[in-house]
Amino acid sequence: MPYDPSAFPPFAVTVDLVVLTVRRHALCALAVRRGEPPFQGRWALPGGFVRADEDLAQAAARELAEETALRAHDQTVPAPDNGAHLEQLATYGDPKRDPRMRVVSVAHLALAPDLPAPRAGGDASYARWAPVDELLQQSGYGRDEEPVAPLAFDHAQILADGVERARSKIEYSSLATAFCPTEFTVGELRRVYEAVWGVALDPRNFHRKVTGTPGFLVPTGGTTTRQGGRPAQLFRAGGATLLNPPMLRPEV
Amino acid sequence: MPYDPSAFPPFAVTVDLVVLTVRRHALCALAVRRGEPPFQGRWALPGGFVRADEDLAQAAARELAEETALRAHDQTVPAPDNGAHLEQLATYGDPKRDPRMRVVSVAHLALAPDLPAPRAGGDASYARWAPVDELLQQSGYGRDEEPVAPLAFDHAQILADGVERARSKIEYSSLATAFCPTEFTVGELRRVYEAVWGVALDPRNFHRKVTGTPGFLVPTGGTTTRQGGRPAQLFRAGGATLLNPPMLRPEV
DNA sequence: GATCATAGTCGTCTGCCTGACGATAAACAC
DNA sequence: GTGTTTATCGTCAGGCAGACGACTATGATC
């Protein structure tokens, strides 16, 4: 395998982002509208070329910042500030995935707390948070009866892979806290699990489980009633990243 | 982000392989000796350029076949024949990971049963199975007091990531059977877990666990005494790919 | 052939975790 | 105050895992 520079075909390398958050009890992803062919006018995942002097993680963090003003937080560590969790997802390199040329895309997965409207590059209709169910139902209809075209390129596959990664990873890691603000209640954390998994969880058993797992949650001392009802204790994410024993996702 | 062909830097894209097997109670990886600079004479992971018309998985399967004469089996499905399990691992793209040019490597993980000596491209000392402990201890000494140089490029990191993936994945999937021949005994499967995790497992509890998990193992009816002692039942991998509940890796 | 070593297989028991609840507490809306 | 909502504490039964005893069936050794 000689590394003769003339012996290998040139590739374009991009990063694409699956940015997930939980809004109004639904798992949502960031989507941008394509302004040019191919797939002009269709929704796609945010992304862009990796620069010549840039690491893959740097490129993903840069794209994330450009789209959301989120500081990317280095992977594997739960975000202590309001930075998002960012980790590499998978790489997609089908020769025909981009009709114009050979593009290999290194997809990354970002998990963020609920944010204000996405910041667009000056264009209001450029980017939006869309429920993943809506983005993934091919040619289906969204909540307001508007027809939804499939995502551009192979982005539906990438999004599905990212969602599946998030679903399984909150089972055995403390990553669900990345969907929450710095301080949160047990109920808010439970609603994250319910939104991501799409199931209802028993509040009493959930409370016992998460408060009984050492290192998962640390109480801040404060309370809040922002959810209504009895005031709830506020917690911050503890240092533990791996949950042992894991949270159990209920039956299919 | 226009796709102007002059606007993106060209990359070389390679696949590198972490090929794991279990030999003599030790987890081993396939290593090849580099015949040219950089890192000439050092051990490295097998790999090569992705061709212009080739998918990433195809490239990985081709490289695997060239190095080991293993038919690659498509990912997520446990190999029913003697093909190896193959799945994408992660992508490594540090700008300085190859001193000559910008190379992005899509690493793949392959799990194979114990094989005869690796097939080299005519050169006997070209490739070998090496215990991962030996390959990963930087500048350490191998079993026979021979000094071991670190792997070339960032291959130590890639190998470590692959080993960690294998360690965690046999917990909740039936992937450990990919290390076994088509027919195997419960004891042989247990020794796979022991080698990969580096721990001792109770044979009685292990037997109860794996035979009690529906879809994991199907008896073939035959028995064997190739391990000595009382004849053991032979099994084949069942259809189940996900183990629920998972195998529990003992405490650190 | 008796004995031993080696592996495999079946049971038992105990502790822990989970799921399924009941019950109580503390806020807000009327 | 009454009702509603959410949070939090308890209780109980079933299931699974770890620890370990007991028995079986082969080959090796004397």
Automatic annotation (TrEMBL), chains A, B:
- Alphabetical list of InterPro entries matching this protein: NUDIX_hydrolase-like_dom_sf (IPR015797), NUDIX_hydrolase_dom (IPR000086), WH-like_DNA-bd_sf (IPR036388), WH_DNA-bd_sf (IPR036390), WHD_NrtR (IPR054105)
Q: What class of enzyme is it?
A: hydrolase
Protein EC:
3.6.1.55
Q: Which UniProt keywords apply?
A: Hydrolase
Gene Ontology molecular function terms on file: 8-oxo-7,8-dihydrodeoxyguanosine triphosphate pyrophosphatase activity
Q: Which residues form a coiled coil?
A: none
**One Pfam family matching this protein:** WHD_NrtR
CDD domains registered for this protein in UniProt: NUDIX_NadM_like
Using the record's annotation, list all stretches that form the Nudix hydrolase domain.
10-154
Please name the Gene3D superfamilies in this protein's record: Nucleoside Triphosphate Pyrophosphohydrolase, Winged helix-like DNA-binding domain superfamily/Winged helix DNA-binding domain
Signal peptide location: none
Q: Which domain of life is it from?
A: Bacteria
Give the protein name, as stated in the record.
8-oxo-dGTP diphosphatase
Origin organism is Streptomyces pseudovenezuelae
Q: What is the lineage of its organism?
A: Bacteria, Bacillati, Actinomycetota, Actinomycetes, Kitasatosporales
